[in-house]
Amino acid sequence: MKKPKIVVIGGGTGIPVILNSLRRENVELTAIVTVADDGGSSGKLRSAIDIVPPGDLRNVLIAMSDMPRFYEKIFQYRFNEADGPLSGHPLGNLIIAGVSEMRGSTYNAIQMLTQFFHTDGKIYPASEKALTLHAVFKDGFDIEGESHIAEHKGLIDHVYVEETATGKVPVASRNVVQSIFDADTIVLGPGSLFTSILPSLVIPEIGEALRKTQAKVIYVCNIMTQRGETEHFSDSDHVRVLHEHLKMKFIDTVLINGEPVPKEYMNSNKFDEYLVQVTHDFKGLKKEGVRIITNNFLELRNGGAFHNGKAVCEEILRINEYRNK
């Protein structure tokens, strides 16, 4: 039997959990990673040497690699605040930046590093150029930069991206569009709706490919609402926003966590961006034309609520198997 081709699109800390579980299965796995991060170490590096921000790519590289735990700790080591210009930089970001300079682009660097770290699958930045994310709010304000969006009070109407250096409409990286057309299943998220998932989808070529692909599209809905992005959002609101941005009801299935998050468990100091559990609106979801799968996808860890990668992975494989019967 041929291996099912699964493409995961997103960024942040959400998709590495899913990728780490999927890579252990008998699938052809591809990750398409957002490149609009302008904060922290990634923001400093993209400003200093004009590269695609490496942070999300670093986390995906580790998630899809079989590198020993010791190597992972080295790659993730973050210089402390007393280290001057190196302060706050993970060693892995500096390695990606150095190889990007050596190989001429971050795209080429990631292809080289996937071999170096024996990665199970392919990793592509959504674009080969660093992108600037814009959020247009309901009040008309256009806020530039992912790291500034949550600071503005109000509701986001829509987001768009442009090439940071030129202001031009971005194009997709090599092989990204073909991967979407070749896929059996495409997984969106989990991750921040406006700053981790949509920055890749609003690249025109990627959005068009998602509208035309024959693959089944699965959206892994967030467990918690997020400050400055999805306050007061239900699960149907998340899906509606995705459909509105691509001007089409392109999502086939939504995975929803049905397990309650204990309020007393959440560490509001450590995870201050997360507010309350996403509410369920099954009537609204049906209006969006999606198949709904509700299960216990919750993993409580370190004072936060996360997706259980194994449980989500099992559901994705079940959907893919059902599709191919």
UniProtKB/TrEMBL annotation:
Protein keywords: Cytoplasm
InterPro entries: CofD, CofD-like_dom_sf, Gluconeogen_factor
GO cellular component, one term: cytoplasm
Cellular compartment(s): Cytoplasm
Main location: cytoplasm
Entry annotated with the keyword Transmembrane: no
Gene Ontology terms describing biological process: regulation of cell shape
Coiled-coil region: none
Example of a GO MF term: LPPG:FO 2-phospho-L-lactate transferase activity
SUPFAM superfamilies xrefs: CofD-like
Function, as annotated: Required for morphogenesis under gluconeogenic growth conditions.
Similarity comment text for this entry: Belongs to the gluconeogenesis factor family.
Protein name: Putative gluconeogenesis factor
